[in-house]
Amino acid sequence: MQARPARLWPRRGRHAICGRVSQQPPSGGAPAIEIHELTKRFGDFTAVDRLSFSVAPGETVALLGGNGAGKTTTISMLLGLLLPSGGSVRMLGCDMARHPHRVLHRINFSSPYVDLPRRLTVGQNLGFFARLYGIPDRRARLDELAHALDLEGIWNKRTGRLSAGQKTRVSLAKALINRPEVLLLDEPTASLDPDTADWLRSYLERYQAERHAAILLASHNMAEVERLCDRVVMLKAGRLVDEATPAALLRKYGRTNLEEVFLDIARDRRSEHLPAPPAEHSHHTEGGEL
Amino acid sequence: MSRREPLRGEMPHGSMWGRVGAMVLRHLYLMRSSWPRVVELAYWPTIQMVIWGFVTLYLLQSSSVIANAAGVLVTAVILWDVLFRGQLGFTLSFIEEIWSRNLGNLAVSPLRPHELLVALTVMSFLRTLIGVLPATGLAILFYGISIYDLGLPLVAFVACLLVMSWALGMLVSSLILRVGQGAENVAWLAIFLLAPISSVYYPVSVLPPWLQAIAWCFPMTPTFEGMRAILIHGTFRPDLLVQALALDGVYLAIGAAVFLYTFRVARRHGLLLQQGE
User: What stretches pass through the bilayer (chain A) (predicted)?
Assistant: First the structure.
Protein backbone atom coordinates (compact mmCIF):
# COMPACT_ATOMS: atom_id res chain seq x y z
CA MET A 1 0.00 0.00 0.00
CA GLN A 2 1.28 3.42 -0.89
CA ALA A 3 2.05 5.41 2.23
CA ARG A 4 0.51 8.87 2.30
CA PRO A 5 1.20 11.50 4.91
CA ALA A 6 -1.37 11.91 7.63
CA ARG A 7 -2.87 15.30 8.32
CA LEU A 8 -4.03 16.36 11.73
CA TRP A 9 -6.93 18.76 12.09
CA PRO A 10 -7.44 20.91 15.13
CA ARG A 11 -9.83 19.28 17.56
CA ARG A 12 -13.00 21.09 18.42
CA GLY A 13 -13.29 22.11 22.02
CA ARG A 14 -17.01 22.69 22.00
CA HIS A 15 -19.85 21.24 20.06
CA ALA A 16 -22.41 23.33 18.21
CA ILE A 17 -25.89 21.90 17.94
CA CYS A 18 -28.29 23.35 15.37
CA GLY A 19 -26.84 26.83 15.57
CA ARG A 20 -26.60 26.74 19.36
CA VAL A 21 -23.48 25.83 21.22
CA SER A 22 -23.26 23.02 23.70
CA GLN A 23 -20.42 22.88 26.22
CA GLN A 24 -20.73 19.10 26.36
CA PRO A 25 -18.08 16.99 24.69
CA PRO A 26 -19.37 15.50 21.43
CA SER A 27 -19.60 11.97 22.80
CA GLY A 28 -21.82 13.09 25.64
CA GLY A 29 -24.15 15.21 23.53
CA ALA A 30 -27.23 14.49 21.46
CA PRO A 31 -27.02 11.96 18.64
CA ALA A 32 -25.47 13.36 15.49
CA ILE A 33 -28.06 11.46 13.45
CA GLU A 34 -31.43 10.53 14.86
CA ILE A 35 -34.24 9.09 12.79
CA HIS A 36 -37.54 7.98 14.18
CA GLU A 37 -40.24 5.96 12.42
CA LEU A 38 -38.89 7.26 9.12
CA THR A 39 -41.08 6.31 6.19
CA LYS A 40 -40.93 7.07 2.49
CA ARG A 41 -43.63 6.03 0.08
CA PHE A 42 -43.67 6.52 -3.67
CA GLY A 43 -47.29 5.93 -4.56
CA ASP A 44 -48.13 2.40 -3.42
CA PHE A 45 -44.48 1.45 -3.01
CA THR A 46 -42.93 1.84 0.43
CA ALA A 47 -39.18 2.40 0.01
CA VAL A 48 -38.44 2.99 3.71
CA ASP A 49 -40.78 1.66 6.36
CA ARG A 50 -40.81 3.04 9.93
CA LEU A 51 -37.04 3.06 10.26
CA SER A 52 -35.53 4.18 13.56
CA PHE A 53 -31.90 4.39 14.61
CA SER A 54 -29.33 6.91 15.72
CA VAL A 55 -25.64 7.58 15.30
CA ALA A 56 -23.61 9.20 18.06
CA PRO A 57 -20.80 11.70 17.44
CA GLY A 58 -17.60 9.75 16.89
CA GLU A 59 -19.43 6.61 15.82
CA THR A 60 -19.24 4.90 12.44
CA VAL A 61 -22.37 3.02 11.45
CA ALA A 62 -22.95 0.91 8.35
CA LEU A 63 -26.23 0.83 6.53
CA LEU A 64 -26.40 -2.57 4.90
CA GLY A 65 -28.92 -4.15 2.62
CA GLY A 66 -29.36 -5.53 -0.84
CA ASN A 67 -30.20 -3.47 -3.89
CA GLY A 68 -33.48 -1.67 -3.30
CA ALA A 69 -33.33 -2.14 0.47
CA GLY A 70 -33.73 1.60 1.00
CA LYS A 71 -30.17 2.68 1.83
CA THR A 72 -29.90 5.49 -0.72
CA THR A 73 -33.45 6.64 0.00
CA THR A 74 -32.58 6.82 3.70
CA ILE A 75 -29.40 8.79 3.02
CA SER A 76 -31.31 11.14 0.72
CA MET A 77 -33.79 11.85 3.52
CA LEU A 78 -30.95 12.38 5.98
CA LEU A 79 -29.49 15.01 3.66
CA GLY A 80 -32.81 16.72 3.08
CA LEU A 81 -32.74 15.76 -0.62
CA LEU A 82 -35.93 13.83 -0.14
CA LEU A 83 -38.85 14.66 2.11
CA PRO A 84 -40.12 11.81 4.29
CA SER A 85 -43.71 10.61 4.01
CA GLY A 86 -43.70 10.04 7.77
CA GLY A 87 -41.47 10.06 10.81
CA SER A 88 -38.62 12.43 11.52
CA VAL A 89 -34.96 13.00 10.69
CA ARG A 90 -32.76 15.07 12.95
CA MET A 91 -29.17 15.87 12.10
CA LEU A 92 -27.08 17.60 14.77
CA GLY A 93 -30.36 18.32 16.48
CA CYS A 94 -32.10 19.90 13.47
CA ASP A 95 -35.20 18.72 11.69
CA MET A 96 -33.93 18.05 8.16
CA ALA A 97 -37.37 18.12 6.59
CA ARG A 98 -38.04 21.64 7.87
CA HIS A 99 -34.75 23.44 8.41
CA PRO A 100 -32.00 21.66 6.47
CA HIS A 101 -30.02 24.84 5.85
CA ARG A 102 -29.38 25.33 9.54
CA VAL A 103 -26.96 22.43 9.53
CA LEU A 104 -26.03 21.67 5.93
CA HIS A 105 -22.75 23.58 6.36
CA ARG A 106 -21.76 21.07 9.06
CA ILE A 107 -22.59 17.99 7.01
CA ASN A 108 -21.24 16.55 3.79
CA PHE A 109 -21.60 13.49 1.64
CA SER A 110 -20.21 11.47 -1.19
CA SER A 111 -22.39 9.43 -3.48
CA PRO A 112 -22.11 7.67 -6.82
CA TYR A 113 -25.34 9.41 -7.81
CA VAL A 114 -23.66 12.80 -8.10
CA ASP A 115 -20.57 14.05 -9.90
CA LEU A 116 -18.34 17.05 -9.80
CA PRO A 117 -18.50 19.29 -12.90
CA ARG A 118 -16.33 17.40 -15.38
CA ARG A 119 -14.98 20.33 -17.38
CA LEU A 120 -13.61 22.05 -14.28
CA THR A 121 -10.17 21.18 -13.00
CA VAL A 122 -9.74 19.57 -9.61
CA GLY A 123 -8.54 22.89 -8.18
CA GLN A 124 -11.46 24.82 -9.69
CA ASN A 125 -13.96 22.29 -8.38
CA LEU A 126 -12.60 22.25 -4.85
CA GLY A 127 -12.21 26.04 -4.89
CA PHE A 128 -15.84 26.33 -5.95
CA PHE A 129 -17.07 24.11 -3.12
CA ALA A 130 -14.81 25.88 -0.62
CA ARG A 131 -16.49 29.17 -1.58
CA LEU A 132 -19.93 27.56 -1.51
CA TYR A 133 -19.33 26.33 2.06
CA GLY A 134 -17.85 29.67 3.09
CA ILE A 135 -14.54 28.15 4.16
CA PRO A 136 -12.33 30.73 5.87
CA ASP A 137 -8.69 30.75 4.84
CA ARG A 138 -9.67 28.87 1.70
CA ARG A 139 -6.18 28.64 0.25
CA ALA A 140 -4.80 26.94 3.34
CA ARG A 141 -7.67 24.46 3.47
CA LEU A 142 -7.26 23.56 -0.20
CA ASP A 143 -3.51 23.08 0.27
CA GLU A 144 -4.22 20.92 3.30
CA LEU A 145 -6.61 18.69 1.35
CA ALA A 146 -4.37 18.55 -1.71
CA HIS A 147 -1.53 17.36 0.49
CA ALA A 148 -3.54 14.95 2.62
CA LEU A 149 -5.35 13.33 -0.30
CA ASP A 150 -2.39 13.39 -2.67
CA LEU A 151 -4.09 15.68 -5.18
CA GLU A 152 -1.15 17.96 -6.03
CA GLY A 153 -0.29 16.03 -9.19
CA ILE A 154 -3.79 16.26 -10.60
CA TRP A 155 -4.71 19.72 -9.30
CA ASN A 156 -4.88 21.27 -12.77
CA LYS A 157 -6.36 18.24 -14.49
CA ARG A 158 -9.99 18.28 -15.60
CA THR A 159 -12.15 16.20 -13.29
CA GLY A 160 -13.72 14.38 -16.23
CA ARG A 161 -10.32 13.01 -17.22
CA LEU A 162 -9.47 11.41 -13.89
CA SER A 163 -9.27 7.69 -13.20
CA ALA A 164 -11.87 6.13 -10.89
CA GLY A 165 -9.43 6.18 -7.97
CA GLN A 166 -8.48 9.81 -8.55
CA LYS A 167 -12.14 10.80 -8.84
CA THR A 168 -12.86 9.07 -5.54
CA ARG A 169 -10.08 11.02 -3.82
CA VAL A 170 -11.41 14.29 -5.25
CA SER A 171 -14.96 13.41 -4.20
CA LEU A 172 -13.68 12.67 -0.73
CA ALA A 173 -11.84 16.01 -0.68
CA LYS A 174 -15.11 17.71 -1.61
CA ALA A 175 -16.91 15.76 1.12
CA LEU A 176 -14.33 16.84 3.70
CA ILE A 177 -13.93 20.43 2.55
CA ASN A 178 -16.03 21.84 5.40
CA ARG A 179 -14.61 19.44 8.02
CA PRO A 180 -18.06 17.88 8.44
CA GLU A 181 -19.29 16.70 11.81
CA VAL A 182 -21.52 14.23 10.01
CA LEU A 183 -20.28 12.43 6.94
CA LEU A 184 -22.60 10.32 4.79
CA LEU A 185 -20.88 7.99 2.37
CA ASP A 186 -22.80 5.97 -0.17
CA GLU A 187 -20.62 3.11 -1.45
CA PRO A 188 -17.38 5.08 -1.09
CA THR A 189 -15.08 2.34 -2.38
CA ALA A 190 -17.22 0.95 -5.20
CA SER A 191 -15.13 0.52 -8.38
CA LEU A 192 -11.85 1.12 -6.56
CA ASP A 193 -8.86 -1.22 -6.72
CA PRO A 194 -7.97 -2.90 -3.39
CA ASP A 195 -4.98 -0.62 -2.77
CA THR A 196 -6.90 2.63 -3.25
CA ALA A 197 -9.87 1.26 -1.30
CA ASP A 198 -7.60 0.27 1.58
CA TRP A 199 -5.95 3.69 1.57
CA LEU A 200 -9.34 5.40 1.60
CA ARG A 201 -10.49 3.32 4.58
CA SER A 202 -7.34 4.24 6.47
CA TYR A 203 -7.96 7.88 5.70
CA LEU A 204 -11.54 7.71 6.92
CA GLU A 205 -10.41 6.01 10.12
CA ARG A 206 -7.96 8.83 10.76
CA TYR A 207 -10.51 11.51 9.98
CA GLN A 208 -13.10 9.90 12.21
CA ALA A 209 -10.64 9.59 15.08
CA GLU A 210 -9.29 13.11 14.73
CA ARG A 211 -12.56 14.98 14.21
CA HIS A 212 -14.81 12.75 16.28
CA ALA A 213 -17.20 12.83 13.33
CA ALA A 214 -20.27 10.66 12.95
CA ILE A 215 -20.03 8.58 9.79
CA LEU A 216 -22.88 6.70 8.16
CA LEU A 217 -21.70 4.36 5.49
CA ALA A 218 -23.77 2.51 2.92
CA SER A 219 -21.70 -0.27 1.42
CA HIS A 220 -21.84 -3.69 -0.17
CA ASN A 221 -18.30 -4.43 0.91
CA MET A 222 -18.58 -6.50 4.09
CA ALA A 223 -14.85 -6.50 4.82
CA GLU A 224 -14.97 -2.71 4.75
CA VAL A 225 -17.89 -2.67 7.14
CA GLU A 226 -16.21 -5.07 9.56
CA ARG A 227 -13.09 -2.92 9.58
CA LEU A 228 -14.63 0.55 9.80
CA CYS A 229 -17.92 0.29 11.60
CA ASP A 230 -18.84 0.27 15.26
CA ARG A 231 -22.36 -0.81 14.48
CA VAL A 232 -24.36 -2.24 11.59
CA VAL A 233 -27.94 -1.45 10.64
CA MET A 234 -29.39 -4.12 8.38
CA LEU A 235 -32.17 -3.15 6.00
CA LYS A 236 -34.42 -5.29 3.92
CA ALA A 237 -37.29 -4.00 1.80
CA GLY A 238 -37.05 -0.66 3.57
CA ARG A 239 -37.27 -2.16 7.06
CA LEU A 240 -34.72 -2.44 9.79
CA VAL A 241 -34.22 -6.17 10.29
CA ASP A 242 -31.25 -6.12 12.64
CA GLU A 243 -28.92 -3.72 14.40
CA ALA A 244 -25.80 -4.68 16.31
CA THR A 245 -22.04 -4.46 16.44
CA PRO A 246 -20.33 -6.54 13.73
CA ALA A 247 -19.07 -8.98 16.38
CA ALA A 248 -22.51 -9.34 17.93
CA LEU A 249 -24.04 -10.04 14.53
CA LEU A 250 -21.47 -12.75 13.82
CA ARG A 251 -22.23 -14.39 17.17
CA LYS A 252 -25.94 -14.05 16.71
CA TYR A 253 -25.98 -15.67 13.28
CA GLY A 254 -23.22 -18.14 14.05
CA ARG A 255 -21.12 -16.95 11.13
CA THR A 256 -17.49 -16.08 10.66
CA ASN A 257 -17.93 -13.05 8.43
CA LEU A 258 -20.54 -10.39 7.69
CA GLU A 259 -20.99 -11.50 4.11
CA GLU A 260 -22.53 -14.75 5.35
CA VAL A 261 -24.73 -12.80 7.74
CA PHE A 262 -25.78 -10.55 4.87
CA LEU A 263 -26.71 -13.60 2.77
CA ASP A 264 -28.63 -15.16 5.64
CA ILE A 265 -30.70 -12.03 5.98
CA ALA A 266 -31.11 -11.50 2.25
CA ARG A 267 -32.24 -15.11 1.80
CA ASP A 268 -34.33 -15.32 4.97
CA ARG A 269 -32.08 -18.04 6.44
CA ARG A 270 -31.56 -16.49 9.82
CA SER A 271 -33.56 -18.98 11.83
CA GLU A 272 -31.47 -21.93 10.58
CA HIS A 273 -28.33 -20.44 12.04
CA LEU A 274 -29.46 -18.86 15.25
CA PRO A 275 -27.29 -20.61 17.82
CA ALA A 276 -28.31 -18.75 20.91
CA PRO A 277 -30.56 -16.05 22.25
CA PRO A 278 -29.81 -12.49 21.01
CA ALA A 279 -26.35 -11.36 21.99
CA GLU A 280 -25.38 -8.20 23.82
CA HIS A 281 -25.82 -4.84 22.09
CA SER A 282 -28.11 -6.44 19.57
CA HIS A 283 -31.72 -5.56 19.18
CA HIS A 284 -33.99 -7.11 16.66
CA THR A 285 -36.73 -5.27 14.88
CA GLU A 286 -39.41 -6.52 12.53
CA GLY A 287 -38.51 -10.02 13.63
CA GLY A 288 -41.57 -11.55 12.08
CA GLU A 289 -40.12 -10.97 8.69
CA LEU A 290 -37.28 -13.42 9.15
CA MET B 1 -29.25 40.91 12.17
CA SER B 2 -26.25 40.13 14.35
CA ARG B 3 -24.08 37.18 13.46
CA ARG B 4 -22.57 34.82 15.97
CA GLU B 5 -18.79 34.72 15.88
CA PRO B 6 -17.51 31.30 14.79
CA LEU B 7 -15.96 29.23 17.51
CA ARG B 8 -12.40 28.02 17.34
CA GLY B 9 -12.27 25.17 14.84
CA GLU B 10 -15.83 25.78 13.70
CA MET B 11 -16.46 26.56 10.06
CA PRO B 12 -18.58 29.64 9.48
CA HIS B 13 -20.67 29.15 6.39
CA GLY B 14 -20.25 32.39 4.51
CA SER B 15 -22.69 34.88 3.13
CA MET B 16 -25.38 34.67 0.51
CA TRP B 17 -23.32 36.75 -1.90
CA GLY B 18 -20.29 34.54 -1.28
CA ARG B 19 -22.32 31.51 -2.34
CA VAL B 20 -23.85 33.31 -5.32
CA GLY B 21 -20.35 34.45 -6.31
CA ALA B 22 -19.13 30.84 -6.07
CA MET B 23 -21.87 29.72 -8.44
CA VAL B 24 -21.10 32.49 -10.92
CA LEU B 25 -17.40 31.65 -10.77
CA ARG B 26 -18.18 27.97 -11.39
CA HIS B 27 -20.05 28.90 -14.60
CA LEU B 28 -17.33 31.31 -15.71
CA TYR B 29 -14.80 28.49 -15.28
CA LEU B 30 -17.03 26.33 -17.45
CA MET B 31 -17.26 28.96 -20.18
CA ARG B 32 -13.53 29.53 -20.06
CA SER B 33 -12.92 25.82 -20.51
CA SER B 34 -15.16 25.57 -23.57
CA TRP B 35 -14.81 28.15 -26.36
CA PRO B 36 -17.70 26.64 -28.39
CA ARG B 37 -20.01 27.64 -25.53
CA VAL B 38 -18.87 31.25 -25.78
CA VAL B 39 -19.01 31.34 -29.59
CA GLU B 40 -22.52 29.88 -29.50
CA LEU B 41 -23.64 32.72 -27.23
CA ALA B 42 -22.78 35.38 -29.81
CA TYR B 43 -23.40 33.35 -32.96
CA TRP B 44 -27.18 33.55 -33.38
CA PRO B 45 -27.66 37.17 -32.31
CA THR B 46 -25.00 38.18 -34.81
CA ILE B 47 -26.45 36.09 -37.66
CA GLN B 48 -29.95 37.39 -36.93
CA MET B 49 -28.73 40.96 -36.91
CA VAL B 50 -26.86 40.50 -40.22
CA ILE B 51 -29.91 38.98 -41.98
CA TRP B 52 -32.30 41.64 -40.71
CA GLY B 53 -29.78 44.34 -41.54
CA PHE B 54 -29.84 43.30 -45.20
CA VAL B 55 -33.64 43.09 -45.11
CA THR B 56 -33.65 46.66 -43.80
CA LEU B 57 -31.29 47.81 -46.56
CA TYR B 58 -33.61 46.25 -49.15
CA LEU B 59 -36.76 47.79 -47.66
CA LEU B 60 -35.11 51.20 -47.41
CA GLN B 61 -35.08 51.30 -51.21
CA SER B 62 -38.83 50.73 -51.55
CA SER B 63 -40.65 51.82 -48.40
CA SER B 64 -40.95 55.35 -47.06
CA VAL B 65 -42.19 53.96 -43.74
CA ILE B 66 -38.98 52.04 -43.22
CA ALA B 67 -36.93 54.95 -44.54
CA ASN B 68 -38.38 57.08 -41.75
CA ALA B 69 -37.19 54.63 -39.12
CA ALA B 70 -34.27 52.81 -40.60
CA GLY B 71 -33.16 51.15 -37.38
CA VAL B 72 -36.48 49.74 -36.21
CA LEU B 73 -36.03 46.21 -37.48
CA VAL B 74 -32.42 45.81 -36.42
CA THR B 75 -33.11 47.35 -33.02
CA ALA B 76 -36.12 45.03 -32.60
CA VAL B 77 -34.01 42.01 -33.54
CA ILE B 78 -31.34 42.91 -31.01
CA LEU B 79 -33.86 43.59 -28.24
CA TRP B 80 -35.66 40.34 -29.03
CA ASP B 81 -32.34 38.58 -28.62
CA VAL B 82 -31.99 40.18 -25.21
CA LEU B 83 -35.20 38.39 -24.25
CA PHE B 84 -34.24 35.11 -25.94
CA ARG B 85 -30.63 35.04 -24.72
CA GLY B 86 -31.71 36.06 -21.24
CA GLN B 87 -34.14 33.17 -20.94
CA LEU B 88 -31.72 30.74 -22.56
CA GLY B 89 -28.86 31.96 -20.37
CA PHE B 90 -30.89 31.28 -17.26
CA THR B 91 -32.19 27.89 -18.37
CA LEU B 92 -28.92 26.60 -19.83
CA SER B 93 -27.01 27.54 -16.68
CA PHE B 94 -29.53 25.44 -14.76
CA ILE B 95 -29.33 22.57 -17.27
CA GLU B 96 -25.53 22.60 -16.99
CA GLU B 97 -25.97 21.53 -13.36
CA ILE B 98 -28.15 18.63 -14.51
CA TRP B 99 -25.81 17.63 -17.32
CA SER B 100 -22.89 17.54 -14.90
CA ARG B 101 -24.94 15.69 -12.23
CA ASN B 102 -24.05 18.46 -9.79
CA LEU B 103 -27.56 19.36 -8.67
CA GLY B 104 -27.41 16.90 -5.74
CA ASN B 105 -24.17 18.48 -4.54
CA LEU B 106 -25.73 21.93 -4.67
CA ALA B 107 -28.94 20.81 -2.97
CA VAL B 108 -27.07 19.54 0.11
CA SER B 109 -24.69 22.48 0.26
CA PRO B 110 -25.45 25.68 2.19
CA LEU B 111 -26.70 27.20 -1.09
CA ARG B 112 -30.42 27.91 -0.69
CA PRO B 113 -32.87 27.57 -3.58
CA HIS B 114 -33.45 31.33 -3.76
CA GLU B 115 -29.69 31.86 -3.88
CA LEU B 116 -29.53 29.43 -6.78
CA LEU B 117 -32.14 31.63 -8.50
CA VAL B 118 -30.04 34.74 -7.92
CA ALA B 119 -26.91 32.99 -9.25
CA LEU B 120 -28.73 31.82 -12.38
CA THR B 121 -30.03 35.35 -12.89
CA VAL B 122 -26.52 36.80 -12.69
CA MET B 123 -25.32 34.17 -15.17
CA SER B 124 -28.20 34.99 -17.49
CA PHE B 125 -27.21 38.65 -17.42
CA LEU B 126 -23.56 37.87 -18.19
CA ARG B 127 -24.42 35.42 -20.97
CA THR B 128 -26.79 37.95 -22.51
CA LEU B 129 -24.10 40.62 -22.51
CA ILE B 130 -21.62 38.23 -24.14
CA GLY B 131 -24.23 37.24 -26.73
CA VAL B 132 -25.74 40.58 -27.64
CA LEU B 133 -22.95 43.15 -27.27
CA PRO B 134 -20.97 41.94 -30.33
CA ALA B 135 -24.15 42.12 -32.45
CA THR B 136 -24.75 45.74 -31.42
CA GLY B 137 -21.19 46.66 -32.39
CA LEU B 138 -21.45 44.91 -35.75
CA ALA B 139 -24.78 46.64 -36.46
CA ILE B 140 -22.97 49.97 -36.18
CA LEU B 141 -20.06 48.71 -38.26
CA PHE B 142 -22.10 47.09 -41.06
CA TYR B 143 -25.21 49.27 -41.32
CA GLY B 144 -24.54 52.39 -39.32
CA ILE B 145 -27.47 51.46 -37.06
CA SER B 146 -26.83 52.00 -33.36
CA ILE B 147 -29.33 50.85 -30.76
CA TYR B 148 -27.49 53.16 -28.38
CA ASP B 149 -29.22 56.05 -30.18
CA LEU B 150 -32.24 55.12 -28.06
CA GLY B 151 -30.44 56.75 -25.17
CA LEU B 152 -31.49 56.10 -21.57
CA PRO B 153 -34.78 54.41 -22.54
CA LEU B 154 -32.64 51.61 -23.99
CA VAL B 155 -31.58 50.72 -20.43
CA ALA B 156 -35.25 50.57 -19.42
CA PHE B 157 -36.20 48.42 -22.42
CA VAL B 158 -33.33 46.01 -21.81
CA ALA B 159 -34.24 45.82 -18.11
CA CYS B 160 -37.90 45.07 -18.94
CA LEU B 161 -36.95 42.30 -21.35
CA LEU B 162 -34.30 40.82 -19.06
CA VAL B 163 -36.66 40.58 -16.11
CA MET B 164 -39.26 38.83 -18.28
CA SER B 165 -36.55 36.51 -19.63
CA TRP B 166 -35.64 35.53 -16.05
CA ALA B 167 -39.27 34.84 -15.23
CA LEU B 168 -39.53 32.62 -18.31
CA GLY B 169 -36.21 30.97 -17.42
CA MET B 170 -37.54 30.11 -13.97
CA LEU B 171 -40.71 28.59 -15.44
CA VAL B 172 -38.83 26.55 -18.05
CA SER B 173 -36.25 25.39 -15.45
CA SER B 174 -39.13 24.33 -13.19
CA LEU B 175 -40.57 22.25 -16.00
CA ILE B 176 -37.21 20.58 -16.65
CA LEU B 177 -36.76 19.88 -12.94
CA ARG B 178 -40.22 18.35 -12.71
CA VAL B 179 -40.36 16.43 -15.99
CA GLY B 180 -36.65 15.73 -16.52
CA GLN B 181 -34.31 16.24 -19.42
CA GLY B 182 -37.01 15.16 -21.86
CA ALA B 183 -38.29 18.71 -21.52
CA GLU B 184 -34.91 20.19 -22.40
CA ASN B 185 -36.01 21.30 -25.88
CA VAL B 186 -38.57 23.55 -24.23
CA ALA B 187 -35.63 25.73 -23.24
CA TRP B 188 -35.11 26.57 -26.91
CA LEU B 189 -38.73 26.64 -28.02
CA ALA B 190 -40.65 28.30 -25.17
CA ILE B 191 -39.88 31.87 -26.15
CA PHE B 192 -41.16 31.41 -29.72
CA LEU B 193 -44.62 30.62 -28.42
CA LEU B 194 -44.76 34.25 -27.30
CA ALA B 195 -43.08 35.74 -30.36
CA PRO B 196 -46.24 36.29 -32.46
CA ILE B 197 -47.91 38.31 -29.71
CA SER B 198 -44.82 40.22 -28.58
CA SER B 199 -45.14 42.89 -31.31
CA VAL B 200 -41.45 42.63 -32.06
CA TYR B 201 -41.43 43.36 -35.78
CA TYR B 202 -44.90 44.89 -36.20
CA PRO B 203 -47.17 47.10 -34.11
CA VAL B 204 -49.68 45.40 -31.84
CA SER B 205 -52.47 47.08 -33.83
CA VAL B 206 -52.03 44.60 -36.69
CA LEU B 207 -53.18 41.73 -34.44
CA PRO B 208 -56.90 40.85 -34.26
CA PRO B 209 -58.57 42.63 -31.29
CA TRP B 210 -58.88 39.48 -29.15
CA LEU B 211 -55.18 38.72 -29.64
CA GLN B 212 -54.27 42.34 -28.85
CA ALA B 213 -55.91 41.91 -25.45
CA ILE B 214 -53.69 38.90 -24.79
CA ALA B 215 -50.59 40.65 -26.15
CA TRP B 216 -50.99 43.54 -23.71
CA CYS B 217 -50.83 41.04 -20.84
CA PHE B 218 -47.11 40.49 -21.51
CA PRO B 219 -44.37 43.08 -20.87
CA MET B 220 -42.85 42.57 -24.33
CA THR B 221 -45.72 44.39 -26.06
CA PRO B 222 -45.42 47.70 -24.17
CA THR B 223 -41.62 47.43 -24.42
CA PHE B 224 -41.53 47.04 -28.20
CA GLU B 225 -44.33 49.59 -28.65
CA GLY B 226 -42.26 51.99 -26.57
CA MET B 227 -39.23 51.29 -28.73
CA ARG B 228 -41.22 52.09 -31.90
CA ALA B 229 -42.62 55.25 -30.32
CA ILE B 230 -39.06 56.55 -29.91
CA LEU B 231 -37.65 55.37 -33.24
CA ILE B 232 -40.62 56.27 -35.45
CA HIS B 233 -42.32 59.16 -33.65
CA GLY B 234 -39.45 60.42 -31.52
CA THR B 235 -41.52 60.29 -28.32
CA PHE B 236 -40.83 58.49 -25.05
CA ARG B 237 -43.93 56.82 -23.55
CA PRO B 238 -43.48 56.48 -19.75
CA ASP B 239 -46.96 54.86 -19.51
CA LEU B 240 -45.74 51.93 -21.58
CA LEU B 241 -42.62 51.61 -19.46
CA VAL B 242 -44.64 51.57 -16.22
CA GLN B 243 -46.97 48.94 -17.66
CA ALA B 244 -44.03 46.77 -18.75
CA LEU B 245 -42.34 47.03 -15.35
CA ALA B 246 -45.56 46.22 -13.49
CA LEU B 247 -46.12 43.13 -15.65
CA ASP B 248 -42.47 42.16 -15.14
CA GLY B 249 -43.00 42.24 -11.39
CA VAL B 250 -45.99 39.92 -11.65
CA TYR B 251 -44.25 37.42 -13.94
CA LEU B 252 -41.05 37.44 -11.90
CA ALA B 253 -43.00 36.72 -8.72
CA ILE B 254 -44.87 33.89 -10.48
CA GLY B 255 -41.65 32.48 -11.94
CA ALA B 256 -39.81 32.51 -8.59
CA ALA B 257 -42.79 31.03 -6.73
CA VAL B 258 -43.18 28.21 -9.28
CA PHE B 259 -39.44 27.44 -9.18
CA LEU B 260 -39.28 27.33 -5.39
CA TYR B 261 -42.45 25.23 -5.24
CA THR B 262 -41.07 22.84 -7.87
CA PHE B 263 -37.83 22.54 -5.89
CA ARG B 264 -39.91 21.41 -2.92
CA VAL B 265 -41.88 18.99 -5.09
CA ALA B 266 -38.55 17.65 -6.39
CA ARG B 267 -37.51 17.00 -2.77
CA ARG B 268 -40.78 15.16 -2.18
CA HIS B 269 -40.32 12.95 -5.24
CA GLY B 270 -36.55 12.47 -5.01
CA LEU B 271 -35.89 14.20 -8.32
CA LEU B 272 -32.80 16.11 -7.18
CA LEU B 273 -30.64 12.99 -7.10
CA GLN B 274 -32.11 11.40 -10.23
CA GLN B 275 -31.31 14.21 -12.63
CA GLY B 276 -28.41 13.64 -14.97
CA GLU B 277 -27.27 12.44 -18.32
Answer: none
